Amino acid sequence: MSSDHALILAVDGGGSKTDVALLQSDGELLSAVRGPGSSPEHLGLEKALAVVERVIEAVAADAGVALGDGRRAEVGAFFMAGADLAEDERRLGTALEAHGWADRVHLANDGFALLWAATGGEYGIACAVGTGMNCVGRLEDGRRAWFPALGAVTGDWGGGRDIGLAALGVAVRAEDRRGPATGLSAAIASHFGCDTATEVAVAVQKRRIDLFRLRELAPIVLQAARLGDPEAVAIFERQGSAVVTFVRGALLQLGVVSDPVDIVLGGSIMVAAGSLFVDGVREGIRELAPRSRVVVCRDRPVVGAAIAGLEMVGSDPVAAARVRAMLDDSRIRVAPDLNGGPPPSTGPVPPLLLP
What we know:
Elements: E1 7-13, E2 17-24, E3 29-36, H1 40-43, H2 45-63, E4 73-80, H3 86-99, E5 102-109, H4 111-119, E6 124-129, E7 133-138, E8 144-145, H5 160-175, H6 184-191, H7 197-205, H8 218-226, H9 230-254, E9 262-266, H10 268-273, H11 275-288, E10 293-296, H12 301-312, H13 317-326, E11 333-334
Parallel strand pairs: 1-4, 3-11, 4-5, 6-9, 9-10
Antiparallel strand pairs: 1-2, 2-3, 6-7, 7-8
């Protein structure tokens, strides 16, 4: 590592994973590591920051850089799930600065990492569909679009958790004849090693299966929808409608329904689903805002965090292009030992039997 280049710490802390990259101000990627989720909403502030700390230690060790004991990155660009309410953002920002990982700390909701990754800047609207769902927006004149994103209590629906819960519901209703038959019943039972989806639901109720694990069902629902299962298709249609509703709210808050604006769609589920429901979402948005530019961000959000960090130190566009080319899944080391087990599985989906 050249001493002529500043160190940049880029962090994307989500509900199911935490990606951390260490790079130089010329865009040279030194290391990137993936660990478990670090959302303060799910873990609490102290446990969430403990996860971040372990991943930062791992990425520094991989890069051969001794962060700590007076050695800091020049900037730390932190994009964290749960940085929604102003109170939570202040607490999280204060805690990040107190840890001393970087001389200068930038904190924003993880949705803004999508904007940076897709557009190279922080202006526009971004809607992310991953473990959960949120939408953010910002204009150059300071106007912001904001949602509390607290789940059902604030009228939210969407993301892996809600998709999984909806799928379990239709699977159980199929078994007890309240609803139509669906291949989701057998697939969900198989995923959790049970005989029936009803058995899975009972295990969730009795807390033998963590409710949070239902997000694991999203790939199963996606596979079923691709095979034409009507119940699975209906779930993804609902998800698409939820995205359009969020974007509509952001457009109205910002007052840019009639203006050209970048709208970025991203998150693991959005990218995985592809045209299955992205096409419908794109059409719904364009009906609301015909002059908008809708793009799907396929880069990992940590790429956006890295580009934001480069901007903070005044790097040129060549550096951003360099790190964008280097920082993909092939360069991110998955570290299953950081929290006693692997990050949530993204492996093969069990066979789906259509009725």
